[in-house]
Amino acid sequence: MKLFKIFAMALLSWACMSLWPVQAASYPEHPIRMVLGYSAGGPTDVIARIVAKHMSENIGQSVVVENKPGASAHIAANDIMTSAPDGYKVLVTSLTLTVNPLLYPDRYNYDSVKAFEPVSNFANLPVVVVTNYDSPYKDLASLIADAKANPGILTFGSSGVGGSAHLAAEMLSTKAGIKMSHIPYKGNGPALQEMIAGRISFMFYPSIGIANYVADKKLRVLAVGTKEPHPDFPGVPTLESMGLTGFEEGAPFVGMLAPAGTPKEIVDKLNKSAVQALSQPEVREQLKKLGAQVIADTPEQFRQFLIADKDRWAAVIKEGNVKVE
């Protein structure tokens, strides 16, 4: 009986595998669900909805965005990890995919690369270093000099432990050889308001919407995390130009992944659809207004990025001795 069961399972597995070429050829035959671990209205959600709309127009089926926030976006990630590898449910996510297993290895026990089939990195959200408009720091050099002269006195805000703002500041601390105090808040919004009020020294923040605060003389941008000067902040130096490299690659990404084991033909169809959507002038203009930089890479390029991203943040977390309370 045991031998019969083994034979039956093997036969079933072979039958399923033999169907994949047929399924891939006719894919997609019904709507695709694009699952997000973030609330509606945030940067990842907005970018996902823009891409989903245009994918729906070119892939022949509706691509429906479904928000499943909670547990640092792990509810959505786990949903995809345990879904059928048939291309009908995909994940759109960001930095939490890489960071969660590094900060919470007991709670989130998965490999951020092996647990998924990368499809495409849609875009990234460059970070900027901001301070209160009336802050004594008129450039990043003076802030770093003060931090070196007074270790641990300068404060930086973030959306919480392990968030992009926190890890970017820890990266700056390591690269500049300074010590600072982290003040975590419940979200980027509250942290930014504290920054505007002048109750923290500085913070890293996605470039989205920052130009408006600069124009209203509420914030000052000390540096931008891009290789080239940012058009929204003329005259502001790049971190790269100051010898502080790696911040562009470390910018929060917004990318799409499928469950591990999804056939290559299906992954390629999803990639082609996403890249085609991201190549539309209308989409590029919308993402530009959001402050996002379009990437639209291949599955293999995205895989290599995720491997490098994991190594990058593992080093930052170790060197900064970042721990969850």
What is the mean pLDDT? 90
Major sheet size, sense and barrel closure:
6 strands, mixed
Fraction in helix? 40-55%
CATH superfamily of the largest domain: Bordetella uptake gene, domain 1
* Unreliable sequence segments: 1-6, 8-13
CATH arch. level architecture of the largest domain: 3-Layer(aba) Sandwich
Q: Write down the overall geometry.
A: globular
When the domains are counted, the total is: 2
Q: Predict the CATH topology of the largest domain.
A: D-Maltodextrin-Binding Protein, domain 2
How many β-strands, per DSSP?
11
Q: Please state the CA-atom Rg, rounded to the nearest Å.
A: 22 Å
Oligomer: single chain
Q: How do the SSEs run, as a string of H and E?
A: HEHEHEHEEHEHEHEHEEHHEH
The largest beta-sheet arranges its strands as 2-1-3-10-4-11
The N- and C-terminal alpha carbons lie at a distance of 52 Å
The share of residues in extended strands comes to 15-25%
Structural class comes to alpha/beta
Please report the first level of CATH classification, the CATH class of the largest domain.
Alpha Beta
Supply the number of helical segments. 11
Overview of the structural elements:
The protein is of the alpha/beta class and 325 residues long. It folds into 2 domains: 30-124 and 252-319, Bordetella uptake gene, domain 1 (D-Maltodextrin-Binding Protein, domain 2, 3-Layer(aba) Sandwich); 127-242, Periplasmic binding protein-like II (D-Maltodextrin-Binding Protein, domain 2, 3-Layer(aba) Sandwich), CATH 3.40.190. The protein has 11 helices and 11 strands. The strands form 2 sheets. It has a 6-stranded mixed sheet with strand order 2-1-3-10-4-11, sandwiched between helices. Strand 1 (32-36), helix 2 (43-59) and strand 2 form a beta-alpha-beta unit. Helix 2 packs across helix 9 (264-278), helix 4 (96-103) packs parallel to helix 11 and helix 6 (164-176) packs across helix 11 (299-319). The radius of gyration is 22 Å and the shape is globular. Mean pLDDT is 90; it is low at 1-6 and 8-13.
